[in-house]
Amino acid sequence: MYPFSFRLFYCAAAFTISILSCQSNAKPEMAEKSNADSMNRKWWKEAVVYQVYPRSFKDADGDGVGDLKGIISKLDYLKSLGIDVIWLNPVFASPNADNGYDISDYRTIMKDFGTMADFDSLLNGLHQRNIKLVMDLVVNHSSDEHEWFKQSRSSRTNPYRDYYHWWNAERGKPAFRPGAFEVDGSGWRFDSLTNAYYLHYFSYKQPDLNWENPKLREEIYAMMNFWFQKGIDGFRMDVIPFIAKDTTFPVITQKVLDEQYGGGWDHYMASGPHLHDYLKEMNNEVLNKYDCMSVAEGAGVTTGTAHDFVDEDRHELNMLYHFEGVSLGFVPGKFKQVKPGGINLVEFKNLYSKWDTVFADKGWGTIYLGNHDQPRMVTRWGNDSPEWRELSSKMLTTFLFTMRATPYYFAGDELGMNNIKFEKIEDYRDIESIGMYNQIKNNGGDLKEFLNDQKITARDNARTPFQWDNTTNAGFTTGIPWLKINPNYTTVNVAVEEKDSTSCLNYFKQLLRLRKENLVLTYGKYTLLDKDNPNVYAYSRELDGKKLLILLNFTASPASVNTGMDISMAKLLIDNYGKAASNNSLQPYEAAIYEITSNE
Length: 600
Ligand code: TEU
What we know:
CATH class of the largest domain: Alpha Beta
Number of helices: 23
CATH architecture of the largest domain: Alpha-Beta Barrel
Bound molecules: 1-O-alpha-D-glucopyranosyl-D-fructose
Number of domains: 3
Largest sheet: 8 strands, parallel
CATH superfamily of the largest domain: Glycosidases
C-alpha cells in the first residue's frame, strides 16, 4: 500500500465512480431539445481542440527542446488538420521543475521556448489561419522562484507573505497534506528562514497561492486580462478546484483518507468554501469581457458537482474535463496500476453515458482519452501491437469525434503514436515518475513492478517528441532531444502518413470533416444501444430528423452487435477498414458510422 499522496488523484476518482448513482444531477426523463438552434450554439461547443505540448512539438533552434518558432514552422500542418483551437501547455518563464507548471513570471515567455515577439507571431499565424489559441492558466501554485514567493519567504511581515499559505512552526507541525511529487509524500515544507512551513500540493518547487487574499486574486485577474488584451481566446485552468481550501487546515484522519477519498478531497483539500465565489469573481473581472473559452481541469469533480462549474446561468466556466474516464481500470490503492485483462467495456460505456446525460439539458461536456498527463491513447485504451495499432487508434478517434462534447485531442494521437515504454528510470524526465520511484525505493517497495506499470501509464509516454518524418530524430530536432524519441518514428510519422490515404492521419482528417459537416455529431441526442454488449460500443446520435449510428468494436476479435436496426440499407459514412461492416458483426477494432434513414 502506497502513502496517500500516491493514490490521491486516482482514488478520488475511483471513489466518485462508486457514488455516481446517488449523486448524479442527471435528468434522463427531461425532454431532449431537438433543434440545434435551441441548443445554445457556441463556437467552443462546435470546436475540436488540439493540444500542443510545446517542449515536444518542434525544435527550431537545435537545443533539443521544442519552441514557439518550431510551432510557427508547422502552422500549415496545424491548418491541414482542420482543428479549430490549439491548447498550448504553459509557455511562461519557468525553472521547469514540472515542465512549465511551475511559473516564475506569468507575463514572460520561457527562454527555452523563445520570446514575446515569437509568441505574438504564433498568435497572429494561428488567427490568420482561423485557429484560436487557448493558454494554460496555472494559478493554484507558482514556482518557488517567482518574485512573489521570494518576497513571501523573506520575512513574516513582508507584504507578499499572505500570497502563499504559511504555518508558523511554534504552532507545531501542520496537519498532513499530500505533496503529489514529493519523495516523502508531504505537502508542507519547512523553511528555516522564517521558521515556518509552506504548503505545496505538488512539488516543493510549486508553492500553493493563497486565494483567500484579495490582492493575489487581483494580480491573477490583471494577468489574465493582459493575455486577453494580446488576443488569446481562452484558458485551460490547471487544477482549478484546488485553489480554494479550508485554510484552518484541520487534521485529516487516516480513516477519512482511506475510506472517503471524495469527501476528504472536497472538504479538506480542494473545492473549499469560497471556490465558486472566486470563479464568479473571475468571470466578472475577466471572462465575461471576451468571447472566450474556459475549461477547468476538473480533478475530483463528480457528476454531482459538475454543474456548479459549468451551468450557463451561474456565470463561471464553459466546460470541465473530469478524471473518471481516464482513471477507469486502475487497481485501487496502487499508483497508476492498470488491472490486467484490458478495459471493462460495459463500465466504460456506462461512465461515458452517465456523463453525457449530465449535460443533456444544461452545461457542456468535454471528451478526451489522452493528454500530457496520460499515456498514449492507443496504448491505454486500444491495442498498440503492430497488428492492431492503426485500426484501434482510428476506432478510438471515431469515439472521440462522435460524442456529444467538445473533443480534446492530443498531438501525435492523429498519427497513432504509442507509448515508448522505457525500461529504466534513467530514461524518464518527469518529476512524477522520478518522485514516485524514489518514494517506493525509500519504502523498500517493488521497483520492478513500478517500472512495469509505468510502461503503460507514465506521463512521459505522451511527451516523447512528435514524429515528423524518418530523418534523424524524427525531424523534431537537429540537437539531442530532451526525451528519447520512439524508435517507430521511421514508419509512424507525418511525412509517411500524409502520402498514405489509409493512414491514421488521413482518417483523422476525414472524421473531423464529418463532424464539421454533421451538426448532429456535436449537438444530437445520444442513445446507448446494446448496452450490455461487452465487446462493442454502439450508440446513435439524432438531431432534427437526422440519425447516425456509431459502431465500435473495442476488441481484437470479430464481435456481434444487436442495435435493433437493420443497417443493410443504411448509408455508410466512414469505416476504418474502408469497407462496410456486415449487418450484425464487426471486424476486430472496426469502427463504422452509418446514416440511418427513417424506414430502417
Ligand atoms: O495536473 C493535475 C493533476 O491532477 C495531475 O497531478 C495528474 O493527476 C497527474 O499528472 C496524473 O499523472 C496538472 C497538470 O496538467 C500537470 O501536468 C501538472 O504536473 C500538475 O497540474 C501540477 O501543475
